[in-house]
Design a protein that fits this description.
The complex is a heterodimer. By secondary structure, chain A is mostly helical. In chain A, 69% of the residues lie in helices and 0% in strands. Chain A contains 13 helices and no strands. In chain A, helix 4 packs parallel to helix 7, helix 4 crosses helix 10 and helix 10 runs antiparallel to helix 13. The longest helix of chain A has 32 residues. Chain A is globular. In chain A, 48% of the residues are buried. By secondary structure, chain B is mainly α. In chain B, 71% of the residues lie in helices and 0% in strands. In chain B, 44% of the residues are buried. The chains are: A mainly alpha, B mainly alpha. At the A-B interface, helix 1, helix 4, helix 5, helix 6 and helix 7 of A face helix 1, helix 3, helix 4, helix 5 and helix 6 of B.
C-alpha cells in the first residue's frame, strides 16, 4: 500500500542543529503561503456565513463580521427558498442521510463478499470479471443516464430516495470490490484452506476468519463511499424529484435561484452545511480517506 | 485450489456448496452486466436512432454524429475541454509535485500541513463551485475587496468574461484536486531509494540536479497515475461547471458533460445527446483501458 509514511525522509540531509538557515525560512514561508491558499475559500465561507448581507455587498467579503449573526444559518437550515418552496435545506439534508446510509452499507457488504470470492475462491475468468468491474468505475455516467432513467421508471423507483440508493449501490460496487479484493489478496490463503479442512463452510470462513481482520479496509471503503455518494450531484440532479433531492442538488438550487435578492451569507451557510459531514469524516479519519483515495488510483 | 477435486460424489448439498461462491458473486455480475455494459450498449444503440424526447428506435445511421460535429456548441465544448483539461492536468501536476517536494524536506508538522492541502478533496464540487463563484464575482468578491482596500483600478472579472471564464473553472478545479496529486507524488517520493540520493549527494550533486536527474525520473509511475486520474476527472467534469458558471456566460464554459445533459434532457435531442456520451466514453476508454491493462497484468 502507498500510505504516506512518516520519517522516511528522502533527502539524505544530515540532521543539523537548529541553526538559523535562510533556505529553511523560505521553505516554511512557502508552505505557509500555500496553507493560506487552500484555507482561503473555507475562511470566506465561514466568515461570510456569520455576517449580515449588507456587510458582504459593501465589499467586506474578506473582513471578519462587524456584526456577528447566526441568522444566515437559521435561514439556510429552515426557511430559505430552495427551488419553489421555502423549506430551507433541512429536508434535503435528511434526504441525503436517508440515501447515503443504506447505499454505503449495502455496497460495502457486497464489496466485501465479492473481494472474498475473487481472492479466496478463484475461478476461471475471475480476473477478466474484475477488469470489467473496474472499468465500470471509470465510465462517464452520462453513458447510463438515459437507460437508467427508464429503468427506474420501470422499477417504480423514479424520483425517489430508494431509486437514488439503488443507483449509488449499482455504481458503488466496483470501488468497494476493488478495495476488498486488494486487501484480501494479501490475506494468507493457507488460513482459509486450513479452516476448510476443519470443515468450516463458505460463510463461516468469511465471518470468523476474514471479517474480524477487515476493520481498516472497511473503514477506508465506508469513507470513500460516503464521501462519493454524499457529494454526488449528477445522479441526484437526474433522478430525483422536488421532495427527494439530495443536499448537493438543493444547495445548487438555493444558490442559482434567480428570484429576489441574492443572499450570499445564506448561500455560504448552506455550502458549509453540505460540506460538513464529509469534512468531519475527513478530519476524524483523514488517514483512511487518503488511503482510499490512493488505492483508487495508485496500484493497490 | 478449491474443493473441486473432492466433489466426486455429486450430492445436492455438495453441489450447492461448490456453487456458493459463484452464487454470492452473481448479483454483482448481473448488476454489472445490465447496468454498466447493457446500458452502454443501449446508449450506443440510441446514438444511431432518431430519439428525441424519449428513446425511439428508428435507425438513422451516423446522422447524429454528423449533426453533432456540425453543432457549434459541441465544438465549443470540445475546445473548452482541451483548454481546461490541459491546463488542469499540467497545473495540478506542477503544483502537486512542488508541494510534495517542499513537504519532503523533513518538515515539522508535516501531517498537519498535508491535512490542510488535501481537505478540498473531501468537498463536493458544488460546494467548491459556490465558494469560488462568489469569491470570484466582481460585484462582491476579490475585485470589490481589493478596490475597497484602495486599489480603485483593480479588475478581476474573469468569471463574467466569455474569453476568460474557462480559466476560472481551472482555478477552482486545481484548488480542489492539487492536494490529492501532492499526496500521490509524496507517496512516490517516499518510495525512492535513499541510498542512491546519498550517493549522488556525496558526489556533490546540487539539490536541483538531484531532483531533476534522480528523483523526478523515478516518479514516472506517480505521473502516470496522476495523469490518468486527472484526465478522466476532466472529461467527466460536470458539477463544478454547473455550480460555478452554469456553462456561461453564454456557452463559454460548456463542456461535453454539460452539453450531453442539456441536449438530452432539456433540448430533447436524445440521439445527439447519446452520441456525445459515446464520444466521452471512447475518450475515457482510450485513457483508462491501457492503464488498467498494465496495472492488472503487472500484479500477476
Amino acid at each position: 500500500m502507498t500510505a504516506i509514511s512518516e520519517n522516511t525522509a528522502a533527502a539524505a540531509e544530515p540532521r543539523r542543529a537548529s541553526a538559523f538557515n535562510p533556505a529553511r525560512v523560505v521553505l516554511y514561508a512557502l508552505l505557509a503561503l500555500f496553507c493560506i491558499y487552500y484555507l482561503l475559500p473555507l475562511y470566506v465561507m465561514v466568515v461570510n456565513s456569520l455576517k449580515p448581507l449588507s456587510e458582504i455587498t459593501a465589499g467586506g467579503m474578506m473582513a471578519l463580521p462587524g456584526d456577528w449573526t447566526i441568522a444566515p444559518w437559521q435561514s439556510a437550515w429552515s426557511s430559505a427558498q430552495v427551488g419553489v418552496e421555502a423549506t430551507g435545506l433541512r429536508p434535503y439534508f435528511v434526504n441525503s442521510i436517508l440515501m447515503v446510509v443504506p447505499a454505503v452499507a449495502l455496497s460495502t457488504i457486497l464489496g466485501a463478499l465479492n473481494g472474498y470470492v475473487l481472492t479466496k475462491w478463484p475461478f476461471r475468468g475471475a480476473s477478466i470479471l474484475f477488469g470489467l468491474l473496474l472499468f465500470g468505475c471509470f465510465i462517464p455516467f452520462q453513458m447510463v443516464l438515459i437507460p437508467m432513467a427508464r429503468m427506474l421508471g420501470l422499477m417504480g423507483l423514479a424520483g425517489s430516495v430508494p431509486g437514488l440508493i439503488f443507483v449509488h449501490l449499482v455504481y458503488g460496487i466496483g470501488f468497494s470490490t476493488l478495495y476488498f479484493r486488494n486487501y484480501y489478496a494479501a490475506f494468507p490463503t493457507e488460513l482459509v484452506r486450513a479452516a476448510q479442512i476443519d470443515g468450516a463452510g463458505f460463510f463461516t470462513i468469511f465471518w470468523r476468519i476474514l471479517l474480524p481482520s477487515s476493520g481498516p479496509i472497511a473503514v477506508v471503503c465506508i469513507i470513500w463511499q460516503f464521501t462519493n455518494i454524499w457529494n454526488d450531484f449528477l445522479f441526484g440532479a437526474s433522478f430525483s424529484d422536488f421532495d427527494s433531492q439530495p443536499m448537493t442538488v438543493a444547495l445548487n438550487n438555493l444558490v442559482q435561484s434567480s428570484t429576489g435578492v441574492k443572499e450570499y451569507n445564506v448561500h455560504f451557510a448552506g455550502a458549509i452545511m453540505a460540506a460538513l459531514p464529509t469534512l468531519l469524516v475527513y478530519i476524524v479519519a483523514g488517514r483512511f480517506f487518503v488511503r482510499g483515495l490512493m488505492a483508487g488510483s495508485v496500484k493497490g | 485450489m478449491p474443493s473441486s477435486a473432492t466433489a466426486t460424489r455429486p450430492g445436492l448439498a455438495d453441489r450447492l456448496r461448490d456453487a456458493l461462491p459463484k452464487l454470492v458473486l452473481s448479483p454483482t455480475v448481473a448488476i454489472v452486466a445490465i447496468f454498466v455494459y447493457g446500458f452502454i450498449a443501449f446508449t450506443l444503440y440510441l446514438s444511431f436512432t432518431d430519439s428525441r424526447i424519449l428513446p425511439t428506435f428508428g435507425w438513422v445511421g451516423w446522422q447524429n454524429y454528423e449533426n453533432l460535429f456540425r453543432i457549434r456548441a459541441w465544438d465549443t465544448a470540445v475546445n473548452n475541454l482541451i483548454v481546461f483539461g490541459v491546463l488542469y492536468i499540467v497545473v495540478c501536476c506542477a503544483l502537486g509535485l512542488l508541494l510534495a517536494i517542499l513537504l519532503d524536506q523533513r518538515i515539522r508538522a508535516e501531517g498537519f500541513i498535508r491535512t490542510i492541502y488535501l481537505y478540498p478533496m473531501a468537498l463536493s464540487f458544488i460546494v467548491t463551485g459556490v465558494a469560488w463563484k462568489w469569491f470570484l464575482d466582481p460585484g462582491i468578491g476579490l475585485e470589490a475587496v481589493v478596490r475597497g482596500w484602495g486599489f480603485e483600478s483593480f479588475t478581476f472579472g474573469w468569471i463574467k468574461d466569455s474569453d476568460m471564464a474557462i480559466y476560472t473553472i481551472v482555478i477552482a478545479a486545481v484548488w480542489q484536486t492539487s492536494g490529492f496529486v501532492m499526496a500521490m507524488f509524496l507517496a512516490g517520493l517516499r518510495g525512492i531509494d535513499s541510498e542512491m540520493m546519498k550517493a549522488a549527494q556525496i558526489d556533490g550533486a546540487s539539490t536541483f540536479a538531484l531532483y531533476r536527474r534522480i528523483v523526478i525520473p523515478q516518479l514516472r509511475p506517480a505521473f502516470m497515475s496522476a495523469f490518468v486520474v486527472l484526465a478522466h476527472m476532466a472529461i467527466k467534469s460536470y458539477d463544478l461547471v454547473i455550480a460555478l458558471t452554469g456553462g456561461g456566460p453564454g456557452t463559454a464554459t460548456e463542456l461535453p458533460a454539460t452539453f450531453m445533459y442539456s441536449y438530452t434532457f432539456t433540448r430533447n435531442q436524445m440521439g445527439i445527446g447519446a452520441a456525445s456520451a459515446v464520444i466521452m466514453l471512447m475518450t475515457i476508454a482510450a485513457i483508462i483501458v491501457p492503464y488498467l491493462w498494465s496495472e492488472l497484468r503487472e500484479k500477476k
